[in-house]
Amino acid sequence: MDSASQQQRIVVGINGSLNSLVALRRAGTEARLTGRRLLAVMVWRPYDTDPPVGTGRSPLKGTRTAAMSLLKDILNDVFAASDDGVPIGGLVISGNAGRTLVQIADKETDLLVVGAGHHKRLRRRRSPVARYCLTHATCPVLAVPPTPLQLDLEALTRKKRLLRTMAHDVGRLSA
User: Fold this and answer.
1) I need a surface site. Which of 4, 83, 99, 167 has the fewest CB within 10 A?
2) Closest C-alpha among 1, 7, 2 to residue 108
3) Pairing mode, if any, of strands 117-120 and 123-126?
4) In the sheet that 88-94 helps form, which strands lie side by side, from edge to edge?
5) Cβ atoms within 10 Å, residue 16
6) Same domain, 58 and 80
7) Rounded Cα–Cα distance for residues 125 and 118 (Å)
8) Can you name the residues that pair with 120 across neighbouring β-strands?
9) What's the domain range around 108?
10) Using CB atoms within 10 A of its CB, is residue 123 exposed (0-12), middle (13-18) or buried (19+)?
11) Is 147 helix (H, G, I), strand (E, B) or coil?
12) pTM of the model
């Protein structure tokens, strides 16, 4: 790995969803193949409410701590078994996910990796974060599509929801 590739980064947005885990894994593969540093970014949004009165502490501190713990767990789960020498960093920051990811991946030599969204019904739907990044980023953006397993899981979830609705309707009609 030369020093130029060490300066180049792969920034990946994660939130714990299956889409973001697939994107993280793909970003890790890209980092290994290109010798770039990997920066996993978890963006969290503060609550839109005021802190509880009289508690003396902000609920935001707990939220940030929980996000940091989740990021650490995700990175350990995804990369603990592989020792491929990829330098990995993590960042937890509050704000709007798309805007924040674009601000962090601000160099032309960066690569921004995001989950592309999911299939819903018969048409593909991009996540708002992926759509924002694809539209506003100044660096290349890799929008990772769902895996075949994800598509199968989504189909099973839809079938389960339909069966539940049908069972509820049958129960109402027979009562």
Assistant:
1) 83
2) 7
3) antiparallel
4) 88-94, 37-44, 9-13, 111-115, 141-144
5) 13
6) yes
7) 6
8) 123
9) 3-144
10) exposed
11) coil
12) 0.75
